[in-house]
Design a protein that fits this description.
- This protein is an alpha/beta fold.
- The chain has 2 domains: 369 residues, 3-Layer(aba) Sandwich (Rossmann fold), CATH 3.40.50.1820; 116 residues, no CATH class.
- Helices cover 36% and strands 15% of the residues.
- Strands 1, 2, 3, 4, 5, 8, 9, 10, 11, 14 and 15 form an 11-stranded mixed sheet that branches. It has a two-stranded antiparallel ribbon with strand order 6-7.
- Helix 6 packs antiparallel against helix 7.
- The longest helix is centred in the last third of the chain and has 22 residues.
- The protein is globular, with a radius of gyration of 23 Å.
- Keywords: Carboxypeptidase, Glycoprotein, Hydrolase, Protease, Signal.
């Protein structure tokens, strides 16, 4: 049994029951439990931390700068006793009241009338004083909600707001970003999203504390304890979901969660916490490019870290060659799990096998033979991203290595610039979201909308063993407790930040009775494969099918 999380202090002021205790147009294929398994060796967490949707170079903000951003002061020692005084409540301008606007879109030949709302869920301590405010954006179809499902969506980081999933994937409005040729100066034009999930579920997009317009109302030390760590993050976001359901009288609705990247880590833990601690059932869990399992071992001792990256690197090469198909990827995965893994386990004790492996990896990836030889067939992500595009003077994105930018420091031995996808998309999404919230909806705020918060990244508790543990134990317990709960995992083949093979190996390790409740679907593209229009229809179909049947 995994350690049970404590009920969060925010629930003290709440009512309600709380438990104690095509290379075709869409070359996709679902993956079910597989018979071949692999033993996972002891983990080294830092080797495969998923970096998506967190700035790759966090600015080194000093504590005074952080406090100035928060509007707070550090707790001062009492002159009489020398003991720290109780942190003072942070006084900030109040956020606007919830604001709604009626909207209409045309999707799949149907006209949808819905209400877009920007609002706030307030968090409080046991003594009733406010601790934080989580800002949400919801889209609710007009009419009777009795049989209407509701989806709660969050991105990752930690430190990312939900703008990526909202305007890039499943919200009713869409802005173009994240693909080759996109730039920060592209106009933030919102259009109707043909891939929205609004036609089969209402949607609520949550911005964790410190992202979007959401904010802490306590000082830095208290914020760390309440919000900026893996356990407290799960607790308060679960509380926000509980409060939204009660506030909107939607507790009887079918409920679904959608998490991307680190949001894929959050998803199983929030599902389990809602089930076991707050007494709220979840019908389905959608994980987009999830960071699930850090337990993949030391690359000096285990083949698993290299097994995870090789198929993604190969997929990028196949796409450039016009040969990326499900059949081709099946062959790649079979080699990866078989001969490649066994050769790495043997190490240099079998030179003939090693040389054959290096030759095969060279052919699979299209890389320079000397580069593959010097790496021993073990392809390190950052080295690969510089090597593959070096002759063109460009650098590839860790989220999709085929999306590139000119390398401003081509003679450096390491990458000094930001990631091409994050750099090109941040301004477009931020501008679109600010205009939508403050002008279209009319929820006024002069505060900064923070799509990717370096402050959250700096304050986050990265030493917490809960992160190293991963969320697979919670995934196991959640689906074991509810045989009707289905988990759908989506990956882009080219993603090197959270490679799809990590989820395949994780599913391989599940007991057969649990593995049948998890399906994996792979798409052409990278971490944000949903930005490719050719993937939209199939993603919509798979999600709609899941909601209809679970």
């Amino acid at each position: 049994m995994s350690p049970r999380l404590k009920p969060p202090p925010f629930l003290s002021s709440m009512s309600g029951p709380i438990s104690e205790a095509k290379a075709t147009a869409n070359p996709l294929h679902p993956r079910t439990a597989r018979s071949n398994t692999i033993t996972i060796s002891p983990m080294v967490f830092k080797r495969f931390t998923c970096t998506v949707l967190l700035p790759l170079s966090l600015s080194a903000l000093g504590s005074s700068a952080l406090l100035a951003q928060r509007g707070g002061q550090p707790p001062q020692a009492s002159p009489a006793t020398g003991t720290p005084a109780k942190p003072a409540e942070i006084k900030l301008e109040p956020l606007s009241p919830d604001k709604s606007v009626a909207q209409t879109i045309s999707v799949h030949g149907k006209t949808l009338h819905y209400t877009a709302t920007v609002g706030t869920i307030k968090l409080t301590a046991p003594d009733g004083h406010p601790t934080g405010e989580v800002v949400f954006t919801s889209y609710i179809l007009d009419g009777d909600h009795t049989n209407r499902p509701v989806l709660f969506a969050f991105n990752g980081g930690p430190g990312a707001a939900s703008g990526y999933l909202n305007f890039g994937a499943v919200g009713p409005k869409h802005v173009i970003f994240g693909n080759a040729g996109n730039s920060p100066s592209d106009p933030p034009t919102l259009t109707d999203n043909p891939g929205t999930w609004l036609d089969f579920t209402d949607e609520v997009f949550l911005d964790p504390i410190g992202t979007g317009y959401s904010r802490s109302l306590v000082d830095e030390a208290e914020s760390r304890k309440l919000f900026y760590g893996p356990t407290q993050d799960v607790e308060y976001l679960s509380t926000v979901i509980y409060k939204w359901l009660t506030k909107n009288e939607r507790m009887p609705s079918k409920k679904y969660l959608l998490g991307e990247s680190y949001g894929g880590y959050r998803g199983p833990r929030i599902t389990h916490y809602l089930q076991a601690d707050l007494g709220v059932g979840v019908n389905g869990l959608f994980l987009v490019s999830p960071y699930l399992n850090p337990s993949f071992g030391d690359g000096n001792l285990s083949p698993v870290p290299w097994m995870i990256t090789l198929p993604a690197i190969t997929a990028a090469h196949l796409e450039n060659e016009g040969k990326l198909t499900p059949e081709a990827m099946k062959d790649v995965i079979a080699y990866d799990e078989g001969e490649y893994a066994s050769t790495l386990i043997k190490g240099p004790s079998d030179p003939a096998a090693t040389n054959a492996m290096i030759q095969h990896v060279t052919e699979m990836t299209g890389l320079d033979p000397e580069f593959v030889k010097h790496s021993g067939g073990r392809l390190e992500t950052r080295a690969f991203l510089r090597e593959i595009h070096r002759e063109n003077g460009t650098i590839g994105s860790v989220y999709d290595s085929n999306v590139t930018d000119p390398d401003p420091f081509p003679y450096s031995s390491f990458q000094q610039s930001g990631d091409p996808i994050l750099e090109s998309g941040k301004a477009t999404i931020t501008e679109a979201m600010v205009n939508f919230v403050t002008v279209t909806v009319g929820w006024k705020s002069e505060a900064r909308y923070d799509l990717l918060s370096s402050e959250v990244g700096n304050l986050w508790d990265r030493q917490n063993r809960e992160t190293e543990r991963g969320s697979v134990p919670d995934l196991r317990e959640a689906i074991a407790a509810d045989p009707k709960l289905h988990v759908v995992v989506f990956h882009g083949w080219n993603d090197l930040s959270c490679p799809f093979m990590g989820s395949i190996l994780t599913q391989n390790e599940l007991p057969p009775t649990l593995a049948k409740q998890v399906s994996i679907h792979e798409f052409p593209g990278g971490h944000m494969f949903y930005t490719r229009p050719t993937n939209s229809d199939e993603l919509h179909h798979l999600a709609e099918q899941t909601v209809a049947s679970h």
